[in-house]
Amino acid sequence: MDETVRWLTTEEQHAWRGFLRLSEKLEGRLGQLLQAESNVSPADFSVLVQLTDVPEGRLRYQDLARALEWEKSRTSHHIARMAGRGLVVREECPQDGRSAFVVITEAGRAVIEAAAPRHVESVRELFLDHVTPAELRMLAEISDRIVSKLDETLS
Fold first, then answer.
1. Does the pTM of the predicted model rise above 0.70?
2. What is residue 8's DSSP assignment?
3. 3-state DSSP: the chain helix, strand, coil percent, rounded to 5?
């Protein structure tokens, strides 16, 4: 056995596996509810959220891929499918001929505006209603710290 590996302690393994189970179950359940109640895939919803979070409703392909932690090919294929359904359009970047923007359409806005209220209620029912305000603050602090560290490794 390699002595340089820092194997997980029982407590660390329990916490890690619990975190993974929580993440997988929440993601799965929220995805099922989105699909059943709003006829929106979790991937479509994620793209639309990213686009509605920016003022112009547009992001460069590479910025969208980075935000979603998707590979370039997955982003291109998924955006093509969404464009085929009229949820987004592709716009060429006039300043950089090698780059393009993904832009939300009115149909895309309508889809997310219809799905968001029920999705938020599901997030409350499945997650937020089961943690205290102090636990929520701690989770946000931990998440921010780890995400910042992960973002540093990309730079």
1. yes
2. P
3. 70, 10, 25
Overall number of domains in the chain: 1
Residue 146 lies in a domain: yes
Domain extent, residue 70, equals: 28-154
* Residue 129: CATH number of its domain: 1.10.10.10
Q: Determine, yes or no, domain membership for 10.
A: no
Mean pLDDT for each consecutive 10-residue tract of the chain (155 residues)? 85 97 97 96 97 95 95 95 97 79 97 97 97 97 95 78
Distance CA 133, CA 102 (A): 37
Helix (H) or strand (E) holding 123: helix 106-126
Residue 138 is encoded by which pair of tokens?
């701690």
